[in-house]
Design goal:
The strands form three sheets. The chain has a five-stranded antiparallel beta sheet with strand order 6-5-4-3-7, sandwiched between helices. It is elongated. It has about 325 residues and is of the alpha+beta class. The chain has eleven helices and eleven strands. The chain starts with a helix and ends with a helix.
């Protein structure tokens, strides 16, 4: 709707200052010509907005102009009170600020929408943590936040998974991302995107040097590139297993990231064993199958069968060494 678009333009100009017409067009998914027509409509309604053409031009509000916008729709007011990833606010030290902001928003809402917003906050809860994820280690985000907002470089002492000792890196941060309850620092190292789990950062030092990011790359761009690297990483090792139907649901949930194909033969009345195909990066990753040893058979390839059998033998040997031979 045109009214919603005019309001969006007004809010963007109020928060961003001068904005190029093509950027407004991209954000609102309309043509540049439509943006200029909308600017004329805003001006005709009394909003002091003007456009400057040229390389460094753009659309801007008259200096000092502000407006209180309370024309939220019912759906918009509900959306504001569904607090996804509530733990993120606490980790950033913003719990009190969030509560204060929501009280101000509630006061600014049109009266007919206030009851719906209040009910939404009591009826909808989003918990971003995984089931049985275990207690999360304490994470100190203060220095990481300082670097992100001050556009400064960071020196990290960081321990990689499986490493005994931390390594030292100098990085150029883009920002912080909370993924399923886990905080990550997205940063460039030697002009290449890297992902650092905040709970593996042993120490972080804010450097005096300004950050050196790749031109035109924002946090969302760097995160998308890293996310694709993780999710689309080629497995390279195809594994076929048979799983007891009684354990199938749990098996699929715990191995979702390694599934190469949905389980076959899941209809009612099917036989007891279900064939599942997985994909791993290396043979050693298949050791995680051992947790389903009493309900799983490795069909192929032979090297994975041997790896899981060796892991099972190691566990048996360990228990015999601790508790003595089984009679």
């Amino acid at each position: 709707m045109k009214a919603d678009r005019l309001l969006s333009i007004l809010l963007l100009l109020q928060t961003r200052g001068r904005v190029p017409a093509h950027e407004l067009a991209d954000r609102l998914e309309v043509s540049v010509r439509t943006i200029y027509r909308d600017v004329e409509a805003l001006s005709a309604s009394g909003v002091p907005v003007y456009a400057e053409r040229g390389r460094h031009g753009g659309i801007e509000l008259l200096a000092g102009f502000r407006t209180d916008v309370t024309g939220l729709t019912a759906d918009e007011s509900r959306a504001l009170f569904i607090l996804a990833a509530q733990g993120a606010h606490a980790a950033l030290g913003l719990d009190a600020a969030l509560g204060s902001a929501l009280r101000k928003v509630m006061a600014a809402l049109p009266a007919p929408y206030r009851p719906a917003a209040e009910v939404t906050s009591r009826r909808i809860l989003v918990d971003a943590t995984r089931w049985k994820g275990g207690p999360q280690p304490a994470v100190d985000l203060d220095v990481l936040q300082d670097a992100v907002f001050a556009d400064r470089r960071l020196r990290l002492r960081y321990r990689h998974s499986g490493a005994k000792d931390p390594s030292t890196y100098t990085v150029d941060p883009y920002g912080l991302v909370s993924k399923a309850g886990v905080w990550y620092l997205v940063a460039d190292r030697r002009a290449r995107p890297r992902l650092f789990r905040a709970d593996r950062v042993h120490s972080a030092t804010l450097l005096p040097d300004p950050v050196k990011r790749r031109p035109g790359v924002e946090l969302a761009d760097a995160w998308e590139e890293l996310r694709r690297q993780v999710e689309e990483r080629p497995g390279g090792l195809d594994v076929t297993v048979r799983v007891r139907r009684s354990r199938l649901d749990m098996f699929v949930r715990l191995n979702a990231s390694s599934l190469a194909q949905l389980p076959e033969g899941e209809g009612e009345g099917e036989k007891e064993w279900v064939t599942v195909r997985l994909s791993y990066g290396v043979v050693g990753e298949a050791r995680q199958l051992l947790q389903f040893a009493d309900a799983l058979e490795v069909v192929s390839p032979p090297e994975v069968r041997a790896e899981v059998a060796a892991a099972a033998a190691s566990v048996t040997e360990l228990y015999q060494r601790v508790s003595g031979p089984v009679e």
